[in-house]
Design brief:
With 69 residues, this protein is mainly alpha-helical. 90% of the residues lie in helices and 0% in strands.
Length: 69
């Protein structure tokens, strides 16, 4: 009877350890995905900023408001 309880306890411990390991792996993947999304958003934001600046400069050039030239 004691051997059976020990075996069940051992199996429960193994299952708990495996669950924690899987959860840890999933959290790492989620963190990587979040970091990748953040990088993508920053790049998109930078591109939008550059396009807006280019459009602004174009309007200034057309209207003669660009004093840098």
């Amino acid at each position: 009877m004691a051997d059976n309880k020990q075996n069940i306890s051992y199996q429960a411990g193994q299952a708990t350890g495996q669950t924690k390991e899987k959860a840890s792996g999933m959290m790492d993947k989620a963190k990587d995905a979040a970091a990748s999304a953040q990088d993508s958003m920053q790049q998109a934001g930078q591109q939008m900023k550059e396009k807006a600046q280019g459009a602004t400069d174009g309007v200034k050039d057309k209207t003669g408001m660009n004093k840098n030239t």
